[in-house]
């Protein structure tokens, strides 16, 4: 099937082919007859062996050999059973057939498995197997069947990880461009680290040497990918914080909010399970609340998520009080909060804030249409209350214990940065640039651990590197663009000063009870990816229009969001809007001028809640809701995402999926809808 | 180069279906049921499924069923999950899954799940993440996914995740695009893509695109049209397909056509076969090439077939 040249068949070719085919066909039918009649004689086995030689991919033929093996072993006479040579000869014959088949096709799954199966019956020689492996691994150093078989033999014969590690060293020294050897090296080192074998634990012992080892390879041939991927693994080993951690929350620590009912948001660095009453305690004044439920902002059947939510309400009896209630949220039993890799949270955290009851609840009578146009904003007066509002919302909760960074890590990273800056001075190497960008980000992230505000020392250089990569490697332009967007947002949200430049104050005439006082305006920034949500939990009004967003993954953490503008982006379906299903505060939504319904391929199809991924049952209520007029398949995802929301103002024009029928469907779906595409509804 | 020779490819598939006496056909007899799935799905994407006699195909497929409930690659061949999935997929194309004894087929598959959550291909015990995908996809199509231990199945697949973000056939095995497709597909179907580092894997996958625009299966290897499916569908499922140059890939696939005789090969000017014809057309469908029916990246069946099964 692979690598055969295309040529027209001549009559001579066709004849020869037909003759050969007829021979094999005859072998096949003889074999199948023997197989169905359980005939395992020497002659039958020979027919089978011939067939396997012609076609080592024929699984049934290998199955037959196993049946024959079992049959012939179990039907031995007493004298044969005592004669170990007899058994050995049967085993050897099987191994011979496998070896023949492998010589024909060293990638045959059936052949390798048969060998494993035979060997697991006993009677194997380590020497022989390693000899066979050396033969195949010399022929093709990337043969993953051979590498897997090698792992099997090492397990069967208790060959040490260190010995196998030396084998990878030899293979790499022989030829740096051996991704398979580098891969196996990383697997073996991980095992040695896990088992805390002396000389490999703690990891700083071997990391420095490995960095040197891979540097040789990469400096010798910077265009070969193998070493670079290994370097990425080393970097990950050096910097990763292999533990779930709370990175942000709302309300912010030390703030004072004025609400009767409000959300409490916990945002972790990765998806976790186990956030509940036992692991997290909620104290209102000095009473520990017993009836709060935490739910993950993610629909899946495993109750895990990166953002977790609960709602608190000031007890009704207290509504007329003017006092400020102290609320404290703290980790009661952090070890119960576990990452997807099974690692428990081991640090305690807590945050506290004051709540005063909201007396002046503005009635939501007839509202004006809310616009995010320039004319509706004024810049924030630096001395106003607004700044204080933002300050308190923005400051990092200082009660989170930050992981401390080790000296060896920062020294190692700093040294790597120097080395790769040097490489890039004489080699125009795209992965080299990418590696340097990653090293610089890792460096800054490590320093951040010990400070309150994120370190952005190298961010300009990193942005510059990604810009260069977009030009140097246009095939992967979007990959670099996405990373650029994320780094840019990190920079923008890293300090109050930089973030303030993107905040605007709504003018008094706007419906402030819906929009909030401040709008965060990230429009027209060429963003292809949205991020830094941990710094944006306070946002009520967000303008992301005129960007290049394909997805809004992570936006669900912004539970206070009531006004969202996503117009003029690249959202291709309602499934791309899936995070909105969790945003119950949303009242104003603009998704006009996207590409909803314009594509036959939906890349969010398996990343959202849907029956296709078994994360949501098909909602039968949709059929009751939809009239017979509407094409079920076209609107079920819109129904699924929107049916729990109370949207007051919606802009949706400029999307292929939106036609008259769809508009009628929406009006039915949002009974509270007052404005649609700029028109007031009655 | 420019165009997809849809007519020729349809003709090629119908021709291959009838050809049985040459050496290539004989050597593929053991996986004929896979071949039928590849051929028919391609015809459906080209809008030409009606050119085939449904009755004949279905009765032949059913003749491949073994008494254990599983299907063999051909009549009289031993059963295996790989062939069982193709049987189910073929019936799905014709909307005839109901003719199966669903319990019998499901039982065959569920008995192949091992203690650690992995799946064997058949009773002889070869374990591979390919079989995890095949089992999960089969049972999902039969609406019997709850008959296996999904949590353990997912745990096993995750144990095959490598440090480069990719997946191999067994724990510790090197990342390979084919295995990655199987693991990502299985995780997609079970709603577990949150276990995947999409940026890390997305980068490994997008680096499969080489200068010619084609995709290889792992670093420093040659491009091959079949990776237009394995790599591309994986990228689509994790929403990182923007990270490759789609136009260049379209061009590469079109260059692998035999426009005269029909069929697509692994590389330009190599011999064509049904396997690569299917993956080439499926790849083009994922790239939104005009005139082709959309194909679902996880179940590897047309989107309308999948929607019909799950959204009713």
TrEMBL record, chain A:
The keyword Cell membrane does not apply. It catalyses: geranylgeranyl diphosphate + L-cysteinyl-[protein] = S-geranylgeranyl-L-cysteinyl-[protein] + diphosphate. The keyword Transferase applies. Gene3D superfamilies: Protein prenylyltransferase, Ribonuclease Inhibitor. It comes from the Eukaryota. Keywords: Prenyltransferase, Repeat, Transferase. Pfam families: PPTA. One of its GO terms (biological process) is prenylation. GO terms for cellular component: Rab-protein geranylgeranyltransferase complex. Its EC number is 2.5.1.60. GO terms for molecular function: Rab geranylgeranyltransferase activity. InterPro entries: Leu-rich_rpt (IPR001611), LRR_dom_sf (IPR032675), Prenyl_trans_a (IPR002088). Catalyzes the transfer of a geranyl-geranyl moiety from geranyl-geranyl pyrophosphate to cysteines occuring in specific C-terminal amino acid sequences. Belongs to the protein prenyltransferase subunit alpha family. This is Geranylgeranyl transferase type-2 subunit alpha. It comes from Deinandra increscens subsp. villosa.
TrEMBL record, chain B:
Binds 1 zinc ion per subunit. It catalyses: geranylgeranyl diphosphate + L-cysteinyl-[protein] = S-geranylgeranyl-L-cysteinyl-[protein] + diphosphate. GO terms for cellular component: Rab-protein geranylgeranyltransferase complex. The keyword Cytoplasm does not apply. Its EC number is 2.5.1.60. Catalyzes the transfer of a geranylgeranyl moiety from geranylgeranyl diphosphate to both cysteines of proteins with the C-terminal sequence -XXCC, -XCXC and -CCXX. Required for male fertility and root tip growth. One of its GO terms (molecular function) is Rab geranylgeranyltransferase activity. Pfam families: Prenyltrans. Belongs to the protein prenyltransferase subunit beta family. This is Geranylgeranyl transferase type-2 subunit beta. The lineage of its organism: Eukaryota, Viridiplantae, Streptophyta, Embryophyta, Tracheophyta. Keywords: Metal-binding, Prenyltransferase, Repeat, Transferase, Zinc. InterPro entries: PGGT1B-like, Prenyltrans, Ptb1, Terpenoid_cyclase/PrenylTrfase. It comes from Deinandra increscens subsp. villosa. The keyword Transmembrane does not apply. Heterotrimer composed of the alpha subunit RGTA, the beta subunit RGTB and REP; within this trimer, RGTA and RGTB form the catalytic component, while REP mediates peptide substrate binding. PANTHER family: GERANYLGERANYL TRANSFERASE TYPE BETA SUBUNIT, GERANYLGERANYL TRANSFERASE TYPE-2 SUBUNIT BETA. One of its GO terms (biological process) is root development. Its cofactor is Zn(2+). Residues 4-300 form the Prenyltransferase alpha-alpha toroid domain.
């Amino acid at each position: 099937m692979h690598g055969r040249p295309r040529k027209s068949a001549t009559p001579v070719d066709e004849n020869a082919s037909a003759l050969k085919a007829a021979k094999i066909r005859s072998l096949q039918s003889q074999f199948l007859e023997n197989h169905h009649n359980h005939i395992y004689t020497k002659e039958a086995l020979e027919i089978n062996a011939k067939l396997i030689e012609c076609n080592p991919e024929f699984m049934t033929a290998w199955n037959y050999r196993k049946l024959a093996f079992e049959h012939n072993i179990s039907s031995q006479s007493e004298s044969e059973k005592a004669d170990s040579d007899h058994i050995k000869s049967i085993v050897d014959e099987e191994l011979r057939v496998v070896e023949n088949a492998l010589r024909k096709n060293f990638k045959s799954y059936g052949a390798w498995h048969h060998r494993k199966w035979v060997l697991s019956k006993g009677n194997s020689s380590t020497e022989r197997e390693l000899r066979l492996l050396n033969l195949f691994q010399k022929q093709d150093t990337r043969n993953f069947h051979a590498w897997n078989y090698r792992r099997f033999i090492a397990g069967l014969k208790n060959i040490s990880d260190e010995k196998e590690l030396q084998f990878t060293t030899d293979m790499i020294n022989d030829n740096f461009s051996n991704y398979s050897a580098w891969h196996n090296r990383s697997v073996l080192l991980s095992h040695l680290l896990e088992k805390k074998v002396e000389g490999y634990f703690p990891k700083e012992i071997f990391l420095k040497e490995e960095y040197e080892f891979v540097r040789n390879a990469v400096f010798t041939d910077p265009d070969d990918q193998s070493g670079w991927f290994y370097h990425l693994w080393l970097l990950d080993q050096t910097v990763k914080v292999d533990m779930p951690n709370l990175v942000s929350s709302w309300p912010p620590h030390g703030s004072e909010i004025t609400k009767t009912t409000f959300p409490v948001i916990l945002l972790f660095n990765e998806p976790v399970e186990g956030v509940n009453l036992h692991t997290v305690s909620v104290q209102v004044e000095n009473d520990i609340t017993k009836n709060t439920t935490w739910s993950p902002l993610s629909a899946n059947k495993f109750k895990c998520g990166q953002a977790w939510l609960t709602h608190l309400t000031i007890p009704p009896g207290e509504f007329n009080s003017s006092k400020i209630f102290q609320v404290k949220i703290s980790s009661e039993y952090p070890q119960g909060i576990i990452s997807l890799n099974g690692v428990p949270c081991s640090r305690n955290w807590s945050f506290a804030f004051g709540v005063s009851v909201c007396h002046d609840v503005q009635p939501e009578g007839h509202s004006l249409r809310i616009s995010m146009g320039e004319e509706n904003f004024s810049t924030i007066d630096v001395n106003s209350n607004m700044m204080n509002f933002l300050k308190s919302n923005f400051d990092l909760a200082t009660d989170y214990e930050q992981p401390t960074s080790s000296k060896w890590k920062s020294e190692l990273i700093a040294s790597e940065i120097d080395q790769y800056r040097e490489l890039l001075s004489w080699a125009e190497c795209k992965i080299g640039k990418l590696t340097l960008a990653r090293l610089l980000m890792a460096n800054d992230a490590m320093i951040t651990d010990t400070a309150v505000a994120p370190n952005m020392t190298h961010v300009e250089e990193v942005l510059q590197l990604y810009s260069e990569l977009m030009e140097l490697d246009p095939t992967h332009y979007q990959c670099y663009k996405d990373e650029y967007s994320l780094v840019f947002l990190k920079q923008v949200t890293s300090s109050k000063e930089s973030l303030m430049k993107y905040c605007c104050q709504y003018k008094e005439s706007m419906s402030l009870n819906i929009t909030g006082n401040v709008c965060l305006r990230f429009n027209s920034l060429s963003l292809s990816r949205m991020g830094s949500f941990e710094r944006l939990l306070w946002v009520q009004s967000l303008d992301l229009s005129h960007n290049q967003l394909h997805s809004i993954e992570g936006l669900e953490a912004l539970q206070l969001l009531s006004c969202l503008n996503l117009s003029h982006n690249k959202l291709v379906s309602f499934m791309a809007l899936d995070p909105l299903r969790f945003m119950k505060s949303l009242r104003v939504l603009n998704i006009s001028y996207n590409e909803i319904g314009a594509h036959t391929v939906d890349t969010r199809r398996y990343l959202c809640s849907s029956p296709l991924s078994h994360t949501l049952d098909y909602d039968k209520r949709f059929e009751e809701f939809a009239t017979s007029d509407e094409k079920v398949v076209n609107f079920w995802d819109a129904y699924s995402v929107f049916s729990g929301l109370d949207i007051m103002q919606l802009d949706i024009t400029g999307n292929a999926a939106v036609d008259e029928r769809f508009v009628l469907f929406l009006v039915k779906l949002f009974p509270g809808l007052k404005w649609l595409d700029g028109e007031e509804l009655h | 180069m420019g165009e997809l020779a849809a007519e020729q490819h349809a003709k090629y598939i119908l021709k291959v279906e009838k050809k049985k006496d040459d050496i290539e056909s004989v050597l593929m007899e053991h996986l004929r049921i896979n071949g039928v799935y590849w051929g028919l799905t391609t015809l459906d994407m080209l809008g030409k499924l009606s050119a085939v006699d449904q009755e004949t195909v279905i009765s032949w497929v059913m003749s491949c069923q073994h008494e254990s409930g599983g299907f063999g690659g051909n009549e009289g061949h031993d059963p295996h999950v790989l062939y069982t999935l193709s049987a189910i997929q073929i019936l799905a194309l014709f909307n005839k899954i109901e003719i199966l004894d669903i319990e019998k087929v499901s039982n065959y598959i569920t008995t192949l799940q091992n203690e650690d959550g992995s799946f064997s291909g058949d009773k002889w015990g070869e374990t591979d993440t390919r079989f995890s995908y095949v089992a999960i996809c089969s049972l999902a199509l039969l609406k019997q996914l709850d008959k296996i231990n999904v949590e353990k199945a997912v745990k096993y697949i995750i144990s095959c995740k490598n440090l480069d973000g990719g997946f191999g056939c067994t724990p510790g095995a090197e990342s390979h695009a084919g295995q990655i497709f199987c693991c990502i597909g299985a995780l997609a179907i079970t709603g577990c893509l949150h276990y995947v580092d999409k940026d890390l894997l997305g980068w490994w996958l997008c680096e499969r695109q080489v200068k010619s625009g084609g995709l290889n299966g792992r670093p420093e290897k040659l491009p091959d049209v079949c990776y237009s499916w394995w790599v591309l569908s994986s990228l689509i499922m994790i929403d990182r397909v923007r990270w490759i140059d789609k136009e260049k890939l379209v061009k590469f696939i079109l260059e692998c056509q035999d426009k005269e005789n029909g069929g697509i090969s692994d590389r330009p000017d190599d011999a064509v076969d049904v396997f690569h014809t299917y993956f080439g057309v499926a790849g083009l469908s994922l790239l939104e090439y005009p005139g082709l029916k959309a194909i679902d990246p996880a179940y590897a069946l047309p989107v309308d077939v999948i929607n019909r099964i799950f959204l009713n």
